[in-house]
Design a protein that fits this description.
The protein is mainly α. Helix content is 80%, strand content 0%.
């Protein structure tokens, strides 16, 4: 029964982009309905399974990814891309929910740190999609920057918090660090919004910065921010960022 609820929540989360592709006139209705139903189904499962006030926090990773994916859907032109997005969202949701099930019901089969790593992936992918959406609204829809900045900040706070919380860190420190990291990444977002780059390139750069900063913050909170870890993140992120910006078209 539990696995049936998991599959149902994944199907509902992917149904929005599919239905919106078939009937674009009601796209917003389908996307909103699938988001609410997918999250609601998973939340019901968590409330029935975990007797703890922190149970809904397992929803943060898939909910953040679903919300960013639905926003990204609005900027896709081709049906093939929309189908791919729906399939990716459904598969990732299913994988995450299945590992939550193993963590709760079959701990002997659960592989340690799997949820932490999955959440890190969800966070980075959500950061990329949300940056694409924010820059898309700024460039293509001409939304004012002062509206997008607080929304971007809230999204980054959610993405950072979900990853650090999943790593079983002290909540007070997680909240403080999440706000600090979000402020820093929001400043980068404002800077990139003035660069003459495509929103795809800017979003990739912002996602890379998110990845690097999140990795360093996590290492700091678990007292593993050694010199080699710092150098590894700085070199990896720095080289990829240099590659992205040097090969991008500045116009």
């Amino acid at each position: 029964m539990t696995r049936l609820w998991i599959v149902l929540s994944a199907v509902l989360s992917a149904a929005g982009p599919l239905m919106a592709t078939w009937d674009p006139a009601r796209a917003l209705v389908y996307l909103a309905a699938s988001l609410v139903l997918g999250i609601g189904t998973f939340w019901f499962l968590l409330r029935q399974s975990l007797n703890t006030p922190h149970a809904p926090r397992f929803l943060l990773a898939p909910a953040g990814l679903a919300l960013a994916s639905d926003g990204f859907f609005l900027f896709l032109e081709y049906d093939a891309h929309r189908y791919a997005l729906a399939a990716l969202l459904g598969i990732l949701w299913l994988v995450y929910a299945e590992h939550v099930r193993l963590y709760v019901f079959e701990s002997h089969r659960y592989r340690v740190y799997t949820l932490e790593r999955l959440t890190f992936v969800f966070s980075t992918l959500s950061a990329f999609l949300s940056a694409m959406v924010s820059l898309g609204f700024l460039v293509l829809a001409q939304f004012p920057l002062w509206i997008l900045v607080p929304l971007f900040f809230l999204g980054e706070t959610l993405f950072i918090f979900e990853t650090l919380w999943a790593s079983k860190m002290e909540e007070e420190s997680v909240r403080r660090i999440s706000i600090f990291g979000s402020l820093l990444l929001t400043e980068f977002f404002v800077v990139f919004s003035f660069f003459p780059l495509s929103h795809l390139v800017s979003a990739a750069a912002l996602a890379l910065l998110h990845y690097g900063l999140l990795g360093l913050l996590r290492a700091e909170l678990i007292d593993r921010l050694e010199r080699r870890v710092l150098v590894r993140y700085l070199v990896f992120v720095g080289l990829l960022l240099l590659l992205i910006l040097s090969t991008a078209r500045w116009s």
